[in-house]
Protein 1
Amino acid sequence: MKKKFLKYFIMCTAVIFFMTSASVTVLASEYDIPVWSSQNNKVSDNIVNANTAKNDVVNTNASAESREVLDSSQAITNNPLKLTSGGAILIEQSTGNVLYDYNMHEKLRPASVTKIMTILLIMEAIDGGRISLTDKVSCSENANSMGGSQIWLDTTEELTVDEMLKAICVVSANDCTVAMAEFLEGSEEAFVAKMNEKAKALGMNDTTFKNCHGIDEDGHLTSPYDIAIMSRELLTKHPSITKYTTIYMDSLRDGKSELVNTNKLVRNYEGCTGLKTGSTSVALFNLSASATRNGLSLIAVIMKGETSAIRFNEARKLLDYGFTNYQYKSLGTANDVVGNIEINKGLEPTVEAVIKNDVGIVMRKSNNNNVKQNVELFNNISAPVTKGQKIGEVTFTLNDEQIAKVDLVALKDVAQYGFGSMLNRVYKTWFTLTRN
């Protein structure tokens, strides 16, 4: 009996030694991704990972450098579309990649496209819980006195935030815009200060706001580039805004006030999601137009078009160019399992490695090469391991050029062996052996 027990003791000791000193096997593979189309997306050889700092520009806590979201180094800049407006830009929404650039940093008067920033701050207040869509908003004498596009608010009436947003997005109501500015910050001046603060945080270096509505005022300037930045911020951070920006016809005041969208693309351009028009006799005709088709979301900005028809036609040209030549491809989804990695001294021998963030790229449809991925899991990972801990990387390449990279993280916690847990494991192993 003593010999038999000694035999079991030696075997259990060997098991413990093996489990506490085993090294990690590196799992690596390089292969064509079979579930994706062989048509790969490349933006003029400028492929952008949707989860790099370029996508984090919308984070107002980011550094000034990381807020330079829109990379124009490979954009089309020689105006082959023969645009005649004062300035234009086309970007892909999820990455911020510039697909077409024509005088994109030209400082021009935005007219009511200004209201994109106003709407952005309203949506931040709603989504942040400061105000609700059902809150009642009154009209001051100042708001009542506004000219230009309006719904003729009266100082004796109140509209809900929902109704105000509808009037601002659909018919560009200046009176409602000022009423909302005063409701949020107490005065239009204080609200405009918030607009400029937000513009600075987003890296809108071509922009100075003098008012919240866009009526011509000396020094009230922005650029196609900056309009693209704030449009992207609004659409990516507050996608519910399209509930309003896609309305073509509606009404207020129990049907007494009819609303018809100033953005004609909402009615006649497939996939249009908004966004905002603007025009004055000095600014001429401006537009930020957004649309989504087959998972590709684009934003086209036109400034200083000579006529209303020109701004819509040239925005349509930009969007058509983007949808014809580019596509967005997902390379991986957060929490996709890539492999297993062995853990030294862990209560569990392995843990699943998963993709940390969604990752995707924009590329030209004409590029038919296969995207490849290389999975690298780190060596010598020892317990304890925490959920979300980086344990590897996936690199995506096209023609041997790196196009994207994403971290691999542990799917769950793995605790470390302690003296008690090792004794428990020895006991279980011994019990199993004695039953055989």
Protein 2
Amino acid sequence: MRSVFRLAAAALALALTAGCAAAPSSSLPASSPPAATPAPQPDPADEIRAMWISYKEWETMDFSSEAAFTEQAARMMENCAALGMNRVLVQVRPFADAIYPSELFPWSDLCAGVQGQDPGYDPLAILVQQAHGNGLAIEAWVNPYRVRLNASYPAGELAATNPAVQHPDWAKEAGGGIYLDPANPEVQAYIAAGVQEILDNYPVDGIHFDDYFYPTTEESFDEDAYAASGTDLPLADWRRENVNSLVSLVYRTVKEASPTAVFGISPQGNPDNNYNGQYSDVSLWMRTPGYLDYVMPQIYWGFGYTLQSGSDRFAFENIIAEWAAMPRAQKVALCAGLGAHRIGDGDGGSNATSTSQWQTGCNLASQVQGLRAAGLNGYALYRYASLFDNAAWADLAAAECEALRTAND
């Protein structure tokens, strides 16, 4: 299989040597095992071209009034549409809180400065209206487990209505943060109910999860629940089953609430980290119906990316070929998350072009062409501010935007 990856990677690598020119249009060699269901071929008209809009964007948005927020949201969606995007992935619940009125989660502190405080209007309703008004599909991006990143973020105290406060037995500490317990069936049901609430109240086009599942590999994190489960499974497999249970439950919730809405997940680009570090069996989700509609691994490495060990497994051209070779169910799309946040700064690789290729003003467009050559179904850019509010690399960001517009014409 590795030789297949190398053949496929060689085709993609041409995109780098071509500078700002389009990547090769030829498809990669077929590489799925014969027993696998053939992967769907992308229709250019249906290509996903998405922008991640995260809580980092909310930190700089003006939530002080409905008019101010609406003005900025309108500009944001107009910029995305002008770039050739057709979808936005909008983070609506980053820390067991919400940027919309919820009966299950408190208001995010990003809206009014204090968790639980109502800003006096509905930001998500505005975002949906502005996205649809600009011809963009919108997915509600939810972080299922995270309550606190660390002791100081989110700022201030957790609201009394935060599920971790109302149900302290649901909360687990890891790495200085707080997370809802992935093993608890009540937690899983609560997360699914939160998804149901969004779909019941907003005409969103999908639900999106990112790569945050189990926050630690420490055995002590859930040793009591593991012991009480009576399972014969090893700890790692038991944890993967807990995540599988949530993912399948959310998928069913989405489809029952809105059959046309999609459910997608953006795992880490490193398949080993997903499986062994976060207990996310992404390969199972891809090849088995009933888990997701698309998978969007975060491929934040450049062409030729090389580790200090000399390994180039995660070079863009190599890791894309590896993901493309994984078996997929017929209706599961494969996209890639691309790192706009790498513009100017580089990706930290040991290869000579680790920084310089991110200073050409066209690296993202070259990667998009590479994805198309590899037969992927689309991409998302992380994140909006890296392209439209990039004070450190304004000229490069503008050049990348122009190259992307050309690639999307």
Protein 3
Amino acid sequence: MVDIRPFKAITYTPKAGDIANLIAQPYDKIDAEMQRQYYALSPYHYCRLILPLEPNKYEVANERITKWLKEGIMAKETQPAIYISRQEFTLFNKRCYRLGIIAASRLYSYSENVIFPHECTFKEPKADRLNMLRNVQKDLEPVFLMYKDPNNETIDFINEITTQKPFIHVIDSLMVEHTIWKVTDPEKILHLQKIFSSKSMVITDGHHRYESAVAYRDEMRSKGYLDADAAFNFHMCYIVPLQDGLVVLPTHRLLKNYNLSNPVLDALKRFFDVYEIESTVSAIDSFLACHVGDHAFCVYDGSRVFGLLLKSNDEVYAFVNANVSKETKIFDVVILRDIVFKHILNACSLCIDNTIFYARWTKEAFDKVNRGEACLAFFVNPISAETVVDAALQHEVLPEKSTDFYPKLVSGLVLMDISLSEKL
């Protein structure tokens, strides 16, 4: 049973300035250059909370939000609400939209079979977000969840609300249009709660935030704070129906310290048909697009591009280490990790942002290799949202960064208080 609750959102006030100059991409999408640009935009930019430049970042974030609330830069709503989000964006010359619900969702351990992960996580980001929670006692960014809505119950509810006057409207730096509506009617909220009570949820994005929030909840319980309605038992979540056309982009892999030597190429030929193709972004995109569903990859070493097509599923089963179903063993990202990285390259302990990097766009990964920021780029096709949900509900976890659900919900639109005095 999923328990969602309305909450009194904390938002920017007009005193802070134009909200377009205040919102940020999620903290894990902000690089050093973006961080500097955000700081230059406003002394109240949201980056100063989620990813401060200062070395004592957790204490600084807490001091800032406390000061901003005191000075009226931010304010807390007087009435609890559930929020409806609509994002409109252009992707590959097509106009798209995505609808979702922002609510406080009760935290569940994975063993309770209510909220399911779909990716592996790293220790360092979880420790970072846990320290942030301990200091600010606010959910600064939502966890992104998805669920099945085959009868369009929540979609119909959302469509009804979006005919009303919005609460927030802003266009972000990536030209994604964000509109937020507020739902305070107790009967409407109760109706939505009843719909969700029978749902299961899969984490779309924010695994580290979710697991950090569970750890924080458990810390509070161990200290004797046992009120089931205390806000720290919940996390602000952005909840999107699977049937609403979730867009998943590929996440390309870049490796340092590995080369495309002749022995490596020979090893690849055991498992793949290997084709040398033109060394251009368009050739890579074309090869992948022509082989959707064929377990296809491209690899670029700065001078040559090779297209790879898996010869046989049977070759995979003996080498994939994951203790999962045959269907999951032949996911592209699993083949790439266990066959190419671990078996062929002997890259068994890659470290994020050190020996392995990730890129959303083909050109971005291609250019990083050209600049010498990585030695090899491996390009993949995206996985479908339906496949992710089906695997997660079978308790099967994919390699980290297997998915890139686009676009992200920007940070700074609403946040949630989880201090000890807050009840939901």
Protein 4
Amino acid sequence: MPVSWLTDLPRTFGVLLALTGIAGLPLAATAQQQQDQQRRQTQPQKPPAKPRQPAAGTPKPAAPPVAAKTEALPPSQVGIGTLAKHAFMVDPQTSTVLLFKDADVAMPPSSMSKMMTIYILFEELAAGRLKLDTRFRVSERARNMGGSRMFLELGSEVSVEDLIKGIIVLSGNDACVVVAEALSGTEESFADRMTKRGRELGMTRTVFKNSSGWPAEGQYTTARDLAVLSWHTIDDYPQYYRYYADMNWTYNNIRQENRNRLLRTTPGTDGLKTGHTEEGGYGQATSAVRDGRRLILVVNGLNSMAERAQETSRLMEWGYRESTNTTVFRAGDTVVEAPVWLGAQDKVPLVVTKPVQITAPAGQTVTPRVVARFEGPLAAPIAKGTKVGTAAVTLPDGRVIEYPLETGVAVPRMGVVGRMTTMVQHYLFGWLS
């Protein structure tokens, strides 16, 4: 009889964990929610009471300030109505979409394209191919760029750090061309690199034609794709993301303010980038973090800088006010214990390496379903941190989010006597189990 089965006994384990009162329903519109809303809208409402007539001689009260009614705004497919033609809000920690309005419809990227130029610069810095004090020369093409500029001088050399600030804070089209030519030879080649890198990040509906977002035929993106780029920038390069929070900068004796007004007006805002074209209107990719919770919002198609600032701030406040995150497991928490074969201990804790969180409407509690999936028993010896399976969290809307599971401690192998005893017991009595 072969003996390999004594040390190799794989079985699929699925451990269901019921967690009551610590979960959340993502704010995606479910069919049941839509039906309930339609019923409320079609039910007759009581007419408002007639106002009493003021007594003679009583002065009329001052009219309250006019505020936009949410129900009067153009509706979104998910979330509240908005003046923006395109809108997408996501909680990146839980992948929960809070707001969706034509977020997969093509639109001009405008200066929000510059986030990809900056991303590639960050990538080069992190890889060690560039340093912040590396200097690039300004070409005639770069110096002659129109629109928002850093006011670079022909033939001058500019540091990478100054170019980063010039692109992020000043939205310099000239700075973008300098970067493109330095890294790829021509702006056209750099735009191809931007598009390719974007696809690798998950920007499946984006084509770049230049480094700055200057209007060009065949150049397009979506609100969702720009949110993907925003999250990769924040998550991949936290050591450089801080530049997006700079409120102003002076270069060549010219002081300019960051066009992202939310840095001054909306608590927690730390990026990212505004944009504007005649075709696409005013847009902005925004991110903020409050009490450890981050939201990302992308809007486009607004009518003015003032409307962009007001609408973006209103939507961010709504996102934080109307939804909350609940932690199901903290990083390092044990989800389940797995059986161990021929180990010094018969079980090993399986832990999550990052927090498992659920997004829910504020004040609402629901029950998630968590299933730990792994192949077991696990054969000793086992090193700490060995990836062995996943924790699948099923949300009430049917979405499943998977988190990696790894061993929380090391488990050495049994001694020779222990292994022999276990093998004999399994050989003689294993059929009883």
